[in-house]
Amino acid sequence: MTRNIDIQIVPYSEKFKKAFKDLNEEWIREYFKMEELDHKYLDRPETYILQPGGYIGVALHQNQAVGVCALIKSNDDTYDFELSKMGVSPKIQGQGIGWLLGEHIVEEAKRRGAKTIYLDSNTVLEPAIKLYRKLGFVEVQGYNSFYERCNIRMELKL
C-alpha cells in the first residue's frame, strides 16, 4: 500500500455532511442498494451517529474530503462500537486512505474506552475485507446484521 499523497484526518463537522453522504452512497449504489438504515445515518449523522456518542473521521487531500469512516455507539452488550460507513473516493483509492481511516477509527475507539468493536460487510468487497483483516478484525459466526447486504461480521478486541 503506497501512499504518494498527503492525507490529513479530521473530525466530522457540518461542512463535511454532503461528502459523508456522497462517498458512502457511491460505493453502496455501485454494489448494492441503499437501505433504510443507510438513509438514516447518511441523512442525519449528527442525530444518529454523533449525538449518541459516536464519531466520524474525514480524510482530507488538498482540503477536499476523499474518505470517511464512522464509529457508531453499539446497543449490543457484546460490542462498544461499530466501525461503519467507510468510503473512499474511487478517484483516489489504492493510496492507503482506507488503512489510515481504519487505524484512526480504531485509535478513537480505544480513546473512548472501547474493548471490542465490530463491522458488518459483504465478502464481494474483497479489498475492504482484506483491509479489515490487516487491521486485526476476525470473522465471527452466528450474528444477525441490520443490513440485507451483509454476509460477514468481523470483530476486533482492543
UniProtKB/TrEMBL annotation:
SUPFAM superfamilies: Acyl-CoA N-acyltransferases (Nat). GO terms for molecular function: N-acetyltransferase activity. Keywords: Transferase. It comes from the Bacteria. Residues 7-158 form the N-acetyltransferase domain. InterPro entries: Acyl_CoA_acyltransferase, GNAT_dom, NAT_camello-type. The keyword Transferase applies. This is GNAT family N-acetyltransferase. It comes from Flagellimonas allohymeniacidonis. The lineage of its organism: Bacteria, Pseudomonadati, Bacteroidota, Flavobacteriia, Flavobacteriales.
